[in-house]
Amino acid sequence: MANSNRPSTTTAHIFRGTFIHATQQTAVQILEDALLGVDTEGKIAFIRKGEELDKVSQAFGFSPSKVTQLTQHEFFMPGMVDTHIHAPQYSYIGTALDMPLLEWLNTYTFPMESRFKDMDFARKVYNQVVRRTLRNGTTTACYFATIHTDASLLLGDIAHKFGQRALVGKVCMDINNFVKHYKESSQESHEETRRFIAELLEKKYPLVKPVVTPRFALSCTGALLGELGEIAKNNNLHIQSHISENVEEVKLVKDLFRDSKSYTEVYHKFNLLTDKTVMAHGCHLSDEELVLFRETGASLSHCPNSNISLCSGLLNVRNVLNLKVKLGLGTDVAGGYSASMLDAVRKAVETSKLLTIQDPKHDTLTFEEVFRLATLGGSQALSLDNQTGNFEVGKDFDALRVNVSIPDGPIDLVQPEEPKILLEKFLNMGDDRNIVEVYVAGKKVVPFTELTEE
Ligand code: GUN
Ligand code: FE
Asked: Residue 169 contacts by C-beta under 8 Å, 6 or more apart in sequence?
Protein backbone atom coordinates (compact mmCIF):
# COMPACT_ATOMS: atom_id res chain seq x y z
CA MET A 1 0.00 0.00 0.00
CA ALA A 2 1.17 3.51 -0.77
CA ASN A 3 2.40 5.25 2.33
CA SER A 4 2.55 8.92 3.15
CA ASN A 5 3.81 10.48 6.32
CA ARG A 6 3.06 13.97 5.11
CA PRO A 7 0.33 15.22 7.45
CA SER A 8 -2.20 17.46 5.79
CA THR A 9 -3.63 20.34 7.74
CA THR A 10 -7.23 19.42 7.02
CA THR A 11 -8.72 16.29 5.53
CA ALA A 12 -11.88 16.91 3.54
CA HIS A 13 -13.06 13.29 3.25
CA ILE A 14 -11.95 9.98 4.73
CA PHE A 15 -13.42 6.76 3.36
CA ARG A 16 -13.02 3.24 4.68
CA GLY A 17 -13.77 0.16 2.60
CA THR A 18 -12.71 -1.51 -0.65
CA PHE A 19 -10.73 0.43 -3.24
CA ILE A 20 -10.04 -1.07 -6.65
CA HIS A 21 -7.66 0.53 -9.13
CA ALA A 22 -4.99 -0.18 -11.74
CA THR A 23 -1.29 0.40 -11.46
CA GLN A 24 1.50 0.06 -14.00
CA GLN A 25 2.33 -3.36 -12.54
CA THR A 26 -1.15 -4.69 -11.75
CA ALA A 27 -4.22 -4.32 -13.96
CA VAL A 28 -6.57 -4.73 -10.99
CA GLN A 29 -5.23 -3.99 -7.52
CA ILE A 30 -7.70 -4.53 -4.71
CA LEU A 31 -7.27 -2.77 -1.38
CA GLU A 32 -9.69 -4.27 1.13
CA ASP A 33 -10.57 -2.43 4.31
CA ALA A 34 -8.47 0.53 3.28
CA LEU A 35 -8.57 4.10 4.55
CA LEU A 36 -8.33 6.83 1.96
CA GLY A 37 -8.06 10.50 2.86
CA VAL A 38 -8.70 13.43 0.52
CA ASP A 39 -7.22 16.81 1.39
CA THR A 40 -8.93 20.18 1.00
CA GLU A 41 -7.38 20.61 -2.43
CA GLY A 42 -9.05 17.40 -3.61
CA LYS A 43 -5.86 15.37 -3.64
CA ILE A 44 -5.38 11.92 -2.16
CA ALA A 45 -3.55 12.55 1.11
CA PHE A 46 -3.10 8.94 2.22
CA ILE A 47 -4.10 5.35 1.59
CA ARG A 48 -3.55 3.13 4.58
CA LYS A 49 -4.88 -0.03 6.15
CA GLY A 50 -8.17 0.29 8.03
CA GLU A 51 -6.62 -1.16 11.15
CA GLU A 52 -4.26 1.84 11.28
CA LEU A 53 -7.16 4.23 11.86
CA ASP A 54 -6.00 5.44 15.27
CA LYS A 55 -2.46 6.13 14.11
CA VAL A 56 -3.57 7.76 10.86
CA SER A 57 -6.25 9.91 12.48
CA GLN A 58 -3.64 11.29 14.87
CA ALA A 59 -1.06 11.89 12.15
CA PHE A 60 -3.58 13.68 9.92
CA GLY A 61 -5.54 15.34 12.68
CA PHE A 62 -9.07 14.08 12.09
CA SER A 63 -11.61 12.46 14.36
CA PRO A 64 -12.29 8.76 13.60
CA SER A 65 -16.00 9.65 13.67
CA LYS A 66 -15.47 11.60 10.41
CA VAL A 67 -14.80 8.39 8.49
CA THR A 68 -17.39 7.35 5.86
CA GLN A 69 -17.73 3.57 5.92
CA LEU A 70 -18.61 1.79 2.65
CA THR A 71 -21.08 -1.10 2.81
CA GLN A 72 -20.36 -4.70 1.89
CA HIS A 73 -21.42 -4.40 -1.76
CA GLU A 74 -19.69 -1.10 -2.35
CA PHE A 75 -16.28 -0.16 -3.62
CA PHE A 76 -14.48 2.87 -4.97
CA MET A 77 -12.82 2.78 -8.39
CA PRO A 78 -11.11 5.59 -10.31
CA GLY A 79 -13.33 7.73 -12.51
CA MET A 80 -13.29 6.66 -16.14
CA VAL A 81 -11.54 8.61 -18.89
CA ASP A 82 -13.36 9.02 -22.21
CA THR A 83 -10.48 9.80 -24.54
CA HIS A 84 -12.69 10.63 -27.54
CA ILE A 85 -16.24 11.97 -27.65
CA HIS A 86 -18.04 14.43 -29.96
CA ALA A 87 -20.25 16.54 -27.67
CA PRO A 88 -22.49 17.98 -30.46
CA GLN A 89 -23.17 14.53 -31.86
CA TYR A 90 -25.01 13.68 -28.63
CA SER A 91 -27.96 15.36 -30.37
CA TYR A 92 -28.45 12.34 -32.67
CA ILE A 93 -26.92 9.54 -30.58
CA GLY A 94 -28.49 6.16 -31.14
CA THR A 95 -29.58 6.89 -34.71
CA ALA A 96 -28.12 7.11 -38.20
CA LEU A 97 -25.71 4.20 -38.09
CA ASP A 98 -26.56 2.84 -41.53
CA MET A 99 -23.62 4.14 -43.53
CA PRO A 100 -19.84 3.91 -43.60
CA LEU A 101 -17.77 6.79 -42.21
CA LEU A 102 -17.46 9.25 -45.09
CA GLU A 103 -21.09 9.02 -46.20
CA TRP A 104 -22.16 9.18 -42.54
CA LEU A 105 -20.19 12.41 -42.06
CA ASN A 106 -21.66 14.04 -45.16
CA THR A 107 -25.23 12.86 -44.65
CA TYR A 108 -25.74 13.25 -40.91
CA THR A 109 -22.80 14.70 -39.05
CA PHE A 110 -21.86 17.86 -40.95
CA PRO A 111 -25.43 19.15 -41.39
CA MET A 112 -26.13 18.55 -37.69
CA GLU A 113 -22.88 20.08 -36.42
CA SER A 114 -23.58 23.21 -38.48
CA ARG A 115 -26.58 23.86 -36.18
CA PHE A 116 -24.22 24.68 -33.31
CA LYS A 117 -23.88 28.28 -34.43
CA ASP A 118 -27.18 28.54 -32.53
CA MET A 119 -26.04 29.03 -28.92
CA ASP A 120 -29.38 27.98 -27.43
CA PHE A 121 -29.26 24.66 -29.23
CA ALA A 122 -25.61 24.23 -28.19
CA ARG A 123 -26.42 25.00 -24.55
CA LYS A 124 -29.18 22.41 -24.48
CA VAL A 125 -27.12 19.60 -26.02
CA TYR A 126 -23.92 20.39 -24.12
CA ASN A 127 -25.75 20.38 -20.77
CA GLN A 128 -27.23 17.02 -21.67
CA VAL A 129 -23.98 15.39 -22.75
CA VAL A 130 -21.97 16.58 -19.74
CA ARG A 131 -24.66 15.41 -17.32
CA ARG A 132 -25.08 12.06 -19.06
CA THR A 133 -21.37 11.27 -19.19
CA LEU A 134 -20.69 12.41 -15.61
CA ARG A 135 -23.44 10.31 -14.10
CA ASN A 136 -22.18 7.34 -16.10
CA GLY A 137 -18.79 7.73 -14.48
CA THR A 138 -16.79 9.76 -17.00
CA THR A 139 -14.77 12.01 -14.74
CA THR A 140 -12.45 13.07 -17.58
CA ALA A 141 -13.65 13.66 -21.15
CA CYS A 142 -11.70 14.66 -24.23
CA TYR A 143 -14.29 16.50 -26.32
CA PHE A 144 -14.58 17.53 -29.95
CA ALA A 145 -17.02 20.46 -30.24
CA THR A 146 -17.76 22.06 -33.65
CA ILE A 147 -16.12 24.77 -35.78
CA HIS A 148 -18.00 27.46 -33.79
CA THR A 149 -15.70 29.16 -31.30
CA ASP A 150 -18.34 30.62 -28.99
CA ALA A 151 -20.31 27.38 -28.71
CA SER A 152 -17.06 25.51 -28.06
CA LEU A 153 -16.24 27.95 -25.24
CA LEU A 154 -19.72 27.31 -23.87
CA LEU A 155 -18.95 23.57 -23.73
CA GLY A 156 -15.94 24.45 -21.57
CA ASP A 157 -18.15 26.59 -19.29
CA ILE A 158 -20.66 23.76 -18.90
CA ALA A 159 -18.02 21.11 -18.14
CA HIS A 160 -16.64 23.52 -15.52
CA LYS A 161 -20.10 24.17 -14.07
CA PHE A 162 -20.71 20.45 -13.57
CA GLY A 163 -17.17 19.85 -12.30
CA GLN A 164 -16.04 17.47 -15.04
CA ARG A 165 -12.36 17.34 -15.98
CA ALA A 166 -12.25 18.05 -19.70
CA LEU A 167 -10.15 18.79 -22.71
CA VAL A 168 -12.26 20.79 -25.15
CA GLY A 169 -11.47 21.27 -28.82
CA LYS A 170 -12.88 23.75 -31.29
CA VAL A 171 -12.94 21.68 -34.48
CA CYS A 172 -10.81 22.91 -37.41
CA MET A 173 -11.71 22.13 -41.03
CA ASP A 174 -11.05 24.14 -44.18
CA ILE A 175 -12.16 21.45 -46.65
CA ASN A 176 -15.73 20.24 -47.02
CA ASN A 177 -16.77 19.28 -50.53
CA PHE A 178 -20.21 18.06 -49.55
CA VAL A 179 -21.71 20.38 -46.96
CA LYS A 180 -20.13 23.55 -48.24
CA HIS A 181 -21.40 25.87 -45.52
CA TYR A 182 -19.81 23.78 -42.77
CA LYS A 183 -16.16 24.78 -43.03
CA GLU A 184 -13.88 27.77 -42.47
CA SER A 185 -11.14 29.38 -44.48
CA SER A 186 -7.71 28.26 -43.41
CA GLN A 187 -6.97 31.67 -41.92
CA GLU A 188 -10.24 31.85 -40.03
CA SER A 189 -9.65 28.37 -38.65
CA HIS A 190 -6.25 29.06 -37.10
CA GLU A 191 -7.17 32.58 -35.98
CA GLU A 192 -10.32 31.33 -34.28
CA THR A 193 -8.31 28.49 -32.73
CA ARG A 194 -5.99 31.11 -31.22
CA ARG A 195 -8.98 33.04 -29.89
CA PHE A 196 -10.56 29.86 -28.51
CA ILE A 197 -7.37 28.91 -26.67
CA ALA A 198 -6.76 32.40 -25.31
CA GLU A 199 -10.33 32.85 -24.08
CA LEU A 200 -10.59 29.40 -22.53
CA LEU A 201 -7.24 29.75 -20.74
CA GLU A 202 -8.24 33.19 -19.52
CA LYS A 203 -11.13 31.68 -17.56
CA LYS A 204 -8.55 29.79 -15.47
CA TYR A 205 -10.79 26.77 -15.03
CA PRO A 206 -8.73 24.33 -12.98
CA LEU A 207 -10.01 21.20 -14.74
CA VAL A 208 -10.94 22.37 -18.26
CA LYS A 209 -8.26 22.95 -20.89
CA PRO A 210 -8.19 23.55 -24.66
CA VAL A 211 -7.02 20.93 -27.15
CA VAL A 212 -5.92 21.71 -30.71
CA THR A 213 -8.34 19.83 -32.96
CA PRO A 214 -7.83 19.34 -36.69
CA ARG A 215 -10.85 17.18 -37.61
CA PHE A 216 -8.82 14.75 -39.73
CA ALA A 217 -6.47 14.87 -42.71
CA LEU A 218 -9.34 14.78 -45.24
CA SER A 219 -10.90 17.95 -43.76
CA CYS A 220 -7.71 20.03 -43.56
CA THR A 221 -5.27 21.49 -46.05
CA GLY A 222 -1.55 21.02 -45.38
CA ALA A 223 -1.38 24.77 -44.70
CA LEU A 224 -3.94 24.50 -41.90
CA LEU A 225 -2.35 21.37 -40.40
CA GLY A 226 0.99 23.22 -40.35
CA GLU A 227 -0.49 26.25 -38.56
CA LEU A 228 -2.17 24.03 -35.98
CA GLY A 229 1.05 22.13 -35.34
CA GLU A 230 2.76 25.48 -34.69
CA ILE A 231 0.03 26.67 -32.33
CA ALA A 232 0.20 23.45 -30.31
CA LYS A 233 4.00 23.56 -30.15
CA ASN A 234 4.26 27.23 -29.17
CA ASN A 235 1.70 26.86 -26.38
CA ASN A 236 2.53 23.29 -25.27
CA LEU A 237 -1.05 22.18 -25.87
CA HIS A 238 -2.84 18.89 -26.27
CA ILE A 239 -3.74 17.76 -29.80
CA GLN A 240 -6.52 15.43 -30.96
CA SER A 241 -7.67 14.14 -34.31
CA HIS A 242 -8.73 10.97 -36.15
CA ILE A 243 -6.49 8.51 -37.96
CA SER A 244 -6.87 5.37 -40.06
CA GLU A 245 -10.45 4.71 -39.10
CA ASN A 246 -11.70 3.22 -42.33
CA VAL A 247 -10.07 1.76 -45.44
CA GLU A 248 -11.59 4.25 -47.89
CA GLU A 249 -10.39 7.16 -45.75
CA VAL A 250 -6.84 5.76 -45.62
CA LYS A 251 -6.77 5.42 -49.40
CA LEU A 252 -7.99 9.00 -49.95
CA VAL A 253 -5.37 10.36 -47.55
CA LYS A 254 -2.66 8.49 -49.46
CA ASP A 255 -3.94 9.97 -52.75
CA LEU A 256 -4.16 13.49 -51.32
CA PHE A 257 -0.83 13.64 -49.48
CA ARG A 258 1.41 11.99 -52.04
CA ASP A 259 4.71 13.07 -50.49
CA SER A 260 3.96 11.35 -47.16
CA LYS A 261 4.49 7.64 -47.06
CA SER A 262 1.72 6.95 -44.56
CA TYR A 263 -1.26 8.58 -42.84
CA THR A 264 0.80 8.82 -39.64
CA GLU A 265 3.59 10.59 -41.55
CA VAL A 266 1.11 13.27 -42.66
CA TYR A 267 0.44 14.30 -39.07
CA HIS A 268 4.08 13.83 -38.07
CA LYS A 269 5.26 16.14 -40.86
CA PHE A 270 3.07 18.94 -39.48
CA ASN A 271 4.30 18.48 -35.86
CA LEU A 272 0.98 17.03 -34.80
CA LEU A 273 2.37 13.88 -33.17
CA THR A 274 3.60 14.72 -29.69
CA ASP A 275 3.37 13.18 -26.23
CA LYS A 276 0.20 15.27 -25.76
CA THR A 277 -1.48 13.93 -28.91
CA VAL A 278 -4.38 11.50 -28.92
CA MET A 279 -5.59 10.05 -32.22
CA ALA A 280 -8.92 8.25 -32.45
CA HIS A 281 -9.34 4.80 -34.03
CA GLY A 282 -6.11 3.72 -35.77
CA CYS A 283 -7.79 0.48 -36.90
CA HIS A 284 -5.68 0.20 -40.05
CA LEU A 285 -2.26 1.45 -38.91
CA SER A 286 0.83 -0.57 -39.88
CA ASP A 287 3.34 -1.65 -37.26
CA GLU A 288 5.73 0.91 -38.71
CA GLU A 289 3.20 3.64 -38.05
CA LEU A 290 2.59 2.37 -34.52
CA VAL A 291 6.33 2.57 -33.89
CA LEU A 292 6.16 6.24 -34.89
CA PHE A 293 3.41 6.68 -32.30
CA ARG A 294 5.65 5.13 -29.66
CA GLU A 295 8.66 7.22 -30.65
CA THR A 296 6.73 10.49 -30.54
CA GLY A 297 4.78 9.55 -27.40
CA ALA A 298 1.45 9.98 -29.21
CA SER A 299 -1.44 7.78 -28.12
CA LEU A 300 -4.49 6.04 -29.55
CA SER A 301 -8.11 6.24 -28.48
CA HIS A 302 -9.80 2.89 -29.09
CA CYS A 303 -13.49 3.45 -29.91
CA PRO A 304 -14.89 -0.05 -30.34
CA ASN A 305 -18.60 0.79 -30.45
CA SER A 306 -18.04 3.27 -33.27
CA ASN A 307 -15.66 0.94 -35.12
CA ILE A 308 -18.37 -1.71 -35.19
CA SER A 309 -21.38 0.60 -35.67
CA LEU A 310 -19.84 2.29 -38.74
CA CYS A 311 -18.25 -0.99 -39.89
CA SER A 312 -14.86 0.73 -39.80
CA GLY A 313 -12.65 -2.10 -38.56
CA LEU A 314 -11.48 -4.07 -35.54
CA LEU A 315 -8.49 -2.54 -33.78
CA ASN A 316 -6.02 -5.14 -32.56
CA VAL A 317 -5.37 -3.63 -29.12
CA ARG A 318 -3.06 -6.51 -28.16
CA ASN A 319 -0.72 -5.55 -30.97
CA VAL A 320 -0.85 -1.87 -29.99
CA LEU A 321 0.02 -2.75 -26.38
CA ASN A 322 2.79 -5.14 -27.46
CA LEU A 323 4.30 -2.25 -29.44
CA LYS A 324 4.15 -0.10 -26.28
CA VAL A 325 1.87 2.57 -27.70
CA LYS A 326 -0.24 4.40 -25.08
CA LEU A 327 -3.94 3.58 -25.48
CA GLY A 328 -7.21 4.63 -23.84
CA LEU A 329 -10.88 3.96 -24.59
CA GLY A 330 -13.39 6.32 -26.19
CA THR A 331 -17.12 6.31 -26.79
CA ASP A 332 -16.85 8.34 -30.04
CA VAL A 333 -20.44 9.50 -29.69
CA ALA A 334 -22.31 9.43 -32.09
CA GLY A 335 -20.35 7.01 -34.29
CA GLY A 336 -20.69 5.02 -31.09
CA TYR A 337 -24.29 4.76 -29.87
CA SER A 338 -23.48 4.83 -26.15
CA ALA A 339 -22.12 7.71 -24.07
CA SER A 340 -21.19 5.30 -21.27
CA MET A 341 -17.63 4.16 -20.78
CA LEU A 342 -19.01 0.90 -19.38
CA ASP A 343 -20.20 0.21 -22.91
CA ALA A 344 -16.73 1.03 -24.25
CA VAL A 345 -15.28 -1.49 -21.76
CA ARG A 346 -17.65 -4.21 -22.95
CA LYS A 347 -17.18 -3.48 -26.64
CA ALA A 348 -13.40 -3.47 -26.19
CA VAL A 349 -13.54 -6.98 -24.71
CA GLU A 350 -15.98 -8.10 -27.42
CA THR A 351 -13.82 -6.73 -30.23
CA SER A 352 -10.89 -8.65 -28.82
CA LYS A 353 -13.04 -11.80 -28.68
CA LEU A 354 -14.08 -11.31 -32.31
CA LEU A 355 -10.38 -11.26 -33.20
CA THR A 356 -9.96 -14.49 -31.27
CA ILE A 357 -12.86 -16.06 -33.18
CA GLN A 358 -11.09 -15.08 -36.40
CA ASP A 359 -7.74 -16.32 -35.12
CA PRO A 360 -7.77 -18.62 -32.07
CA LYS A 361 -4.10 -17.78 -31.43
CA HIS A 362 -5.06 -14.16 -30.70
CA ASP A 363 -4.31 -13.29 -27.08
CA THR A 364 -7.74 -12.01 -25.92
CA LEU A 365 -7.84 -8.95 -23.67
CA THR A 366 -9.01 -9.68 -20.13
CA PHE A 367 -11.59 -7.60 -18.29
CA GLU A 368 -8.81 -6.63 -15.89
CA GLU A 369 -6.72 -5.19 -18.72
CA VAL A 370 -9.69 -3.31 -20.14
CA PHE A 371 -10.49 -1.88 -16.69
CA ARG A 372 -6.96 -0.48 -16.70
CA LEU A 373 -7.46 0.99 -20.20
CA ALA A 374 -10.69 2.73 -19.10
CA THR A 375 -8.96 4.39 -16.13
CA LEU A 376 -5.17 4.60 -15.89
CA GLY A 377 -4.67 3.90 -19.62
CA GLY A 378 -6.95 6.79 -20.56
CA SER A 379 -5.16 9.17 -18.23
CA GLN A 380 -1.84 8.15 -19.77
CA ALA A 381 -3.23 8.52 -23.29
CA LEU A 382 -4.19 12.11 -22.44
CA SER A 383 -0.92 12.76 -20.55
CA LEU A 384 -2.97 13.52 -17.45
CA ASP A 385 -1.66 10.58 -15.43
CA ASN A 386 0.19 12.86 -13.05
CA GLN A 387 -3.25 14.15 -11.98
CA THR A 388 -5.73 11.28 -12.39
CA GLY A 389 -6.20 7.64 -13.40
CA ASN A 390 -5.72 5.76 -10.12
CA PHE A 391 -5.51 6.12 -6.35
CA GLU A 392 -1.90 7.15 -5.94
CA VAL A 393 -1.15 9.54 -3.10
CA GLY A 394 -0.79 13.06 -4.50
CA LYS A 395 -3.18 12.57 -7.46
CA ASP A 396 -6.58 14.20 -7.55
CA PHE A 397 -9.39 12.09 -6.09
CA ASP A 398 -11.40 11.28 -9.24
CA ALA A 399 -13.55 8.37 -8.17
CA LEU A 400 -16.77 6.41 -8.50
CA ARG A 401 -18.56 5.02 -5.48
CA VAL A 402 -20.09 1.85 -6.85
CA ASN A 403 -22.84 -0.15 -5.17
CA VAL A 404 -23.27 -3.42 -7.01
CA SER A 405 -26.41 -4.37 -5.13
CA ILE A 406 -28.83 -1.47 -5.27
CA PRO A 407 -32.56 -2.22 -5.03
CA ASP A 408 -34.16 -2.65 -8.47
CA GLY A 409 -30.75 -2.25 -10.07
CA PRO A 410 -29.36 -4.26 -12.97
CA ILE A 411 -27.41 -6.77 -10.85
CA ASP A 412 -28.76 -9.49 -8.53
CA LEU A 413 -26.37 -10.98 -6.01
CA VAL A 414 -27.36 -14.34 -4.54
CA GLN A 415 -24.51 -14.43 -2.05
CA PRO A 416 -21.75 -12.16 -0.78
CA GLU A 417 -19.01 -11.95 -3.42
CA GLU A 418 -15.35 -11.03 -3.30
CA PRO A 419 -14.39 -7.59 -4.65
CA LYS A 420 -12.95 -8.84 -7.94
CA ILE A 421 -16.26 -10.56 -8.75
CA LEU A 422 -18.13 -7.38 -7.79
CA LEU A 423 -15.94 -5.41 -10.20
CA GLU A 424 -16.43 -7.93 -13.02
CA LYS A 425 -20.21 -7.93 -12.57
CA PHE A 426 -20.30 -4.14 -12.49
CA LEU A 427 -18.20 -3.82 -15.65
CA ASN A 428 -20.32 -6.37 -17.50
CA MET A 429 -23.80 -5.58 -16.21
CA GLY A 430 -23.75 -2.34 -14.22
CA ASP A 431 -25.07 1.04 -15.21
CA ASP A 432 -25.45 4.54 -13.80
CA ARG A 433 -27.83 3.27 -11.10
CA ASN A 434 -24.85 1.50 -9.55
CA ILE A 435 -22.72 4.66 -9.58
CA VAL A 436 -24.05 6.22 -6.41
CA GLU A 437 -21.51 9.04 -6.14
CA VAL A 438 -18.97 10.59 -8.50
CA TYR A 439 -16.02 12.68 -7.30
CA VAL A 440 -13.76 14.87 -9.42
CA ALA A 441 -10.74 16.45 -7.74
CA GLY A 442 -12.28 15.61 -4.37
CA LYS A 443 -15.58 17.32 -5.08
CA LYS A 444 -18.80 15.30 -5.14
CA VAL A 445 -20.33 16.08 -8.55
CA VAL A 446 -22.96 13.30 -8.67
CA PRO A 447 -25.68 13.31 -7.38
CA PHE A 448 -26.14 16.70 -9.02
CA THR A 449 -26.64 19.66 -6.72
CA GLU A 450 -29.19 22.42 -7.05
CA LEU A 451 -26.61 24.48 -8.92
CA THR A 452 -26.20 21.82 -11.56
CA GLU A 453 -29.85 20.72 -11.62
CA GLU A 454 -31.45 22.03 -14.84
N1 GUN B 1 -13.52 11.41 -38.81
C2 GUN B 1 -13.65 12.73 -39.04
N3 GUN B 1 -14.68 13.25 -38.34
C4 GUN B 1 -15.20 12.24 -37.64
C5 GUN B 1 -16.29 12.13 -36.73
O6 GUN B 1 -17.00 13.10 -36.40
N7 GUN B 1 -16.52 10.88 -36.22
C8 GUN B 1 -15.78 9.81 -36.54
N9 GUN B 1 -16.06 8.64 -35.99
N10 GUN B 1 -14.77 9.88 -37.40
C11 GUN B 1 -14.48 11.07 -37.94
FE1 FE C 1 -14.59 10.66 -33.63
From this structure: 142, 143, 144, 145, 152, 210, 211, 212, 213, 240
What crossing angle do the helices spanning 186-202 and 222-235 adopt, rounded to 10°?
Answer: 20
Which residues lie across from 404 on neighbouring strands?
none
Q: For residue 320, what are the contacts with CB-CB under 8 A and spacing of at least 6?
A: 282, 290, 300, 302, 327
**Bridge partners for 80 per DSSP:** 138
Testing ligand 1's pocket by substitution, the residue of 112, 143, 182, 242 carrying the most ligand atoms inside 8 A of its CB is: 242
Q: CA 251, CA 100: separation in Å to the nearest integer?
A: 14
Pairing of strands 165-169, 208-214: parallel
Residue ranges with CB less than 5 Å from ion ligand 2: 280, 332
Tally of residues, the chain = 454
CA 454 from chain centre, in angstroms, equals 24
Q: What does each C-alpha distance from 361 to 252, 315, 320, 347 come to in angstroms?
A: 33, 16, 16, 20
Task: Report how far residue 89's alpha carbon sits from residue 55's, in angstroms, rounded to the nearest whole number.
Answer: 51
Nearest to 159 by CA among 136, 180, 138: 138
pLDDT-based confidence at residue 128 (cuts at 50, 70, 90): very high
At position 11, the amino acid (one-letter code) is: T
Site to substitute for ligand 1 among 101, 176, 182, most atoms within 8 A of C-beta: 101
* ∠ CA 269-293-324, rounded to 5°: 165
Q: Per-residue DSSP letters for 13-48?
A: EEEEEEEEE--SS-SSEEEEEEEEEEETTSBEEEEE
Q: How many beta carbons lie within 10 A of that of residue 181, not counting itself?
A: 9
Q: Residue type at 189?
A: S
Query: pTM for the complete prediction?
Result: 0.97
Per-residue pLDDT tens over the stretch 244-293 = 999 999 999 999 999 999 999 999 999 999 999 999 999 999 999 999 99
Give the Å distances, CA to CA, from 333 to 145, 310, 338.
11, 12, 7
Smallest CA-to-CA distance from 201 within 168, 158, 163, 165 is with: 168
Ligand found nearest the CA of 336: 1
Sign for the CA dihedral angle at 11, 161, 234, 274 comes to positive
